[in-house]
Amino acid sequence: MQYIYMCKNDEMNLNEMKISELKAVYKLAIETRNFEITQLINRNNFFMLFQGVLLAAVFSNQAHKPIVEFIICFSGIFISGHQMKVAAGAKYWQEWWELKTSEIEDELKKAIGNDSFIPLFSLNKDQMKAFRKKVITKIESPQSKCLEIDYNKIIKTKYSVSRVPIYTGFVLMLTWVALLFSTLGWFHVFDLSAFIHGIQFEKAP
């Protein structure tokens, strides 16, 4: 009888140790995932600041300096490429840690019990649908203002915030490519003056 009691105690201790280890790993996985998202924002801010300085250098250049303009535009393409790569890498590791967290949640759920565990990342399809309905109901609450109705449609499309820096880097790369072509005189072949007038300012009297 005493032997059976000791065995049960050993099993309980092992289960408690396993749960404790899983909780520690789970906490580390969430913290690392949040760290990746924070670093994505910080890195993107750094690149956007650097890109802004380069664009300001191009457009504020009073004297015509073709070589300098060409080098700045070429550097802009190079930096935009790295901005896209850094953002894509951060997105990959965010997905990696979210998947890892989901796997750890499944292990914790088995150890603790389904009734005692609230999942964050390992929701099944039914749970996802139910929670999505709750979110949409909150977005479409009567408290929303009239002008926010159209915005709610955009919100419900669930745009990926972590993908925006990748798209931004791509658009900036296209901008730098167009400016680079302009420095090479490739746009001079096409007469766009009939369509593009620029921003006109009236002279002060």
Which key terms come to mind for this protein?
elongated, 205 residues, single chain, mainly alpha
Write the topology of this structure.
Blueprint: H1 2-59, H2 66-112, H3 125-139, H4 148-156, H5 164-183
How would you briefly describe this protein structure?
This protein has 205 residues and is mainly alpha-helical. It has helices spanning 2-59, 66-112, 125-139, 148-156, 164-183.
Q: Spans with pLDDT under 50 lasting ≥5 residues?
A: none
Helix-and-strand structural type: mainly alpha
Please tally the helical runs, counting DSSP H or I stretches of 4 or more residues: 5
**E-strand count:** 0
Mean pLDDT: 78
N/C terminus separation: 105 Å
What does this structure look like?
There is one protein chain. With 205 residues, the protein is mainly α. Helix content is 73%, strand content 0%. It has five helices and no strands. Helix 1 packs antiparallel against helix 2 (66-112) and helix 2 (66-112) packs antiparallel against helix 5 (164-183). The longest helix has 58 residues, at 2-59. The protein is elongated, with a radius of gyration of 27 Å. The mean pLDDT is 78.
